[in-house]
Design goal:
Helix Hairpins; Immunoglobulin-like; potassium (chains A, B, C, D); homotetramer; transmembrane helix (chains A, B, C, D); 2 domains; alpha+beta; 17 strands; inward rectifier potassium channel activity (chains A, B, C, D)
Chain lengths: 316, 316, 316, 316
């Protein structure tokens, strides 16, 4: 923590980032979630199942629902079978497999409240279990369809970040630049950015880390329509002041970028963040334009696949 | 960018509007959405289907739902037919058309979980497909009814803006005025306005644009009950200072007005915006009163069809 | 507007209240909604049906739902009857009334997706209508149950205000006091109060009104647990400074009180307001305590029926 | 209120805590809800049933739903029985008990809209009641499943607080410290803490209480990932300045800690609070580290069972 820390002596490190200066490894994972493992709790305490379900990959979520549906029906099929299939009308008694099939399908017809009635309960116990199963089915589908809709309608920012953070020429000197753009048909207003940087010595045995909030030229935007190049001017108050190549060689640098905005479609505040590690910071480069007028000059075309495009330039 | 830019030399253009000074065409469309086309993404990435569905016109939305419902039932009808209609009880076998009809109606009765049971599955495959279709139906209607209700209950500001922005006499000089009023039985509190103006040379080849946030006499209102005339006083700090007719002749001007407020019925923040282009700015006019006491003087009557009414007046 | 306006010469009237100084009648009705009638719009534009339904009295809302349900079923009953009851199985053909009854009940069993199947569609047209009715039923109940639940779970502040505003002794002089208390098992945090007063001459022909925001001794409270006596100290900056009895005799005074807070159960911001007119302002009175220790001194008892209790006192 | 109050003479007590200085007993209960009983209202006014249901223990909530379901079905069973079971087809007339059972199950099949149709209404009255019951069932399950899902998806902070507040060495002097950590897979951003302390004389007959908001070294954190040790430095502006052991012996002290943050999964603001009473304040102790690097040093492990771990130390 020697050479580059000298440079920081006049800077006030931030202490309100929520990360500890003695934490290990990358701070944020690529998915924007913190790189922390929790211990000392049982699984029921440890997880918010709502968050698990909301963040699950779509295919896994659908598979989970279908498996839950099939599993519940199998359980009830066995209960009806145990009670006795003579408590159900319309069962095909030809072979055992048909009997099992029919109790399974009776269960699913009850659980979903379809209730064709071709198979129907007649005895007390089967009727009672069916009464309970229909009730349970309504609760099950409350959660299942609630989550299904919540995943569909969940407030998200829908922002694309550039793959790299650049050290680019800016005014008389240079600036750290990150580019972000909305990529869907939503509309973000009152967008705010916070950029934090974590700097620690390359040498693993000394994992002390300093955090700095980087001042940006334009921390707030009224309506986020086109791309937004977030600019942190590198002056004597910046931790990147001086020989930035040397800094990136001797230290692990991680840049956290968080955008907070209001989305009208969702009528809610949305947040998105990403982080850039040392290898993702490119010294001496500037972003290429990513929008252009349409040929009729009546609208502007935003090329989202160019969000990360840059060219090498010399720094002053 | 010659004549009128001179006047701006002492003004600080705003850079945090989210629009680029090199974008083309009108900035906001009439519907308040930005005039931008996105490229470089596949359609699945490009759209937030929630936003598409929420913003769709009512008739299109209903048609979309009905077509989705019919289409799904046709698919399942063919599956049941392919499996074999002998796996279903109660089918009218008289003619092929009747058979097709009955599998279609069986499908719809399963998909909606009505399940009369006149037609019911007996074989394994048909039962299995029906089990799956009922499950799918519940998920389909979770999205369909969720969106249907979300469209009905979505937080919106319900504001009417005047068709024109006026340059009206104000105090000793003049002011830019825009009028807005709530037009429904909702109640907006803590309403805030932001007015931004974009000014660019008429000459298309030089599309450089400057943005200014206009100071307003009263940027915040506690309870928005009657009309609100938003007033931007034209003094030496205003981009409209000087010969405003000349400005409107030589430059493209677009005025963005955004209102943000809290609605108690929705218990949510709501936002609405509009924009006025050069042709919609009227120099030398003032708004006519749009409310009057009731005949018994016990209440106030707000005439919403008069929101844009103005009369020509001479500016000082 | 003579005598008492002199006193106001040194005060800056508020202009951001949202009310016009030339509006007529009481500003807020007793229910906290503004006293304004809207004109110039057709009923579809004029109302947010969501707000209408959310604010409807419970009995009216339930009646509305039931009538909508019965009415829809009658419509569909006639459609099925027009199509021909031979397209339905299980109809009791004994008398016309029984036929009508059975199509009505078939309709309701379809609309709610109960679908017993005792009566079931067999012909193409009846099946098609039933297919559509089940779909419509799901949409109808999406809105009906959505609203039913929204009414039940809608974020509200649940505050009780004192019936009167008092002019009470305070420190060396006097203060305007209003009392408010939460009356349900919810918990309000970060509660803020805004008090505005509207003062206009008694003489109806001169309906010019001045608005003032009243400074309060304690405009914000962290956790609103017991009663909150909102205190506006009457000093030379207050519109009530001087002979307050004279003011109330010669002017119409209306005091608006609005509380805004965060409720954790709803996880939402909630707002409630009320207004006090001249007759509801009592000069020379102070609120009586409304809470007391429990007999075991282990908890505090809040007497909500005493929220408005006061005793007459002499002002200094 | 003698000895320790002298010390407070230079401090400004807070008056905006929402608690009265004359309230009795503990201010917040262990569950974070205020220790207040409400009187003077009937039960319908007194409770927000939404809050009751949302805060109910899970087992009680499920039991309540099941009892409501069974109870409603029993009521309707008796209605159908009173109408006459000859108005229902498919009833098992063998013995009275079977008849009663069958009307009960018919009711449940109607209420849940399963509608097998084995038992189905034929007469006018039974059909009418069934029509109404299916409608009621949809409303009942709107509330039941709405609450069920709301409980599952309700925005909560999921924070664990340390069991004790410590007076620990800090810089040259000492500080009051409280530790908090997120314990689930949610992500809190923009977390803010407010610490308030209530101090009253041990002597019950003199229950005057003073409130102070404690300044913290770091009142806000950007991303709350690891534990957060909230630090209130004890200097001459602190109510704990001087002989803290003496203070805790002669006075009842209660420390309220409230955290407010934004959760992205819920897209909502969340709040959690706790309070520490005199016995839970430990003088001369410091928290032990609760996180450590993983063995591969690639991530950080947070031990949530160590949240309250401390060791005794000497204060300077």
């Amino acid at each position: 923590m020697s050479k580059f820390l000298d440079r920081f002596s006049s800077l006030k490190p931030e202490i309100d980032t929520g990360f500890s200066s003695t934490a290990s490894g990358r701070f944020l994972n690529e998915n924007g979630m913190p790189n922390v493992r929790r211990k000392g709790l049982n699984p029921f305490e440890k997880y918010s199942w709502y968050h698990v379900m909301i963040n699950l990959n779509s295919w896994k979520f659908i598979t989970f629902l279908i498996l839950g549906y099939i599993f519940t029906n199998i359980i009830f099929a066995f209960i009806y079978y145990a009670i006795g299939i003579d408590h159900l009308t319309g069962i095909d008694h030809s072979v055992l497999l048909n009997e099992l099939m029919d109790v399974f399908f009776f269960s699913s017809q009850t659980f979903t409240t379809v209730g064709y009635g071709r198979i129907a309960p007649v005895g007390f116990l089967a009727s009672l279990v069916a009464t309970f199963e229909a009730f349970l089915g309504l609760l099950f589908f409350a959660i299942a369809t609630g989550l299904f809709y919540a995943r569909f309608s969940r407030p998200r920012a829908f922002l694309k970040f550039s793959k790299n953070a650049l050290i680019a020429p800016y005014q008389d000197g240079s600036a750290l630049m990150v580019r972000v753009a909305p990529f869907k048909n939503n509309l973000l207003t009152s967008a705010e950015v916070i950029i934090t940087v974590a700097i620690s010595n390359r040498d693993q045995s000394d994992s002390q880390t300093e955090f700095f909030i980087l001042k940006t030229e334009l921390p707030k935007i009224n309506i986020l329509v086109l791309n937004w190049t977030v600019v942190h001017k590198i002056d004597e108050d910046s931790p990147f002041y001086g020989d930035v190549n040397e800094l990136l060689k001797t230290a692990n640098v991680e840049i956290f970028t968080q955008i907070r905005a209001f989305d009208e479609g969702f009528a809610s505040t949305v947040i998105q963040r990403t982080s850039y590690i040392t290898e993702e910071i490119i010294v001496g480069a500037k972003f290429l334009p990513m929008f252009e007028p349409s040929t009729d000059r009546e609208t502007t075309i935003l090329n989202l696949d160019k969000i990360g495009d840059y060219e090498k330039v010399n720094l002053p």
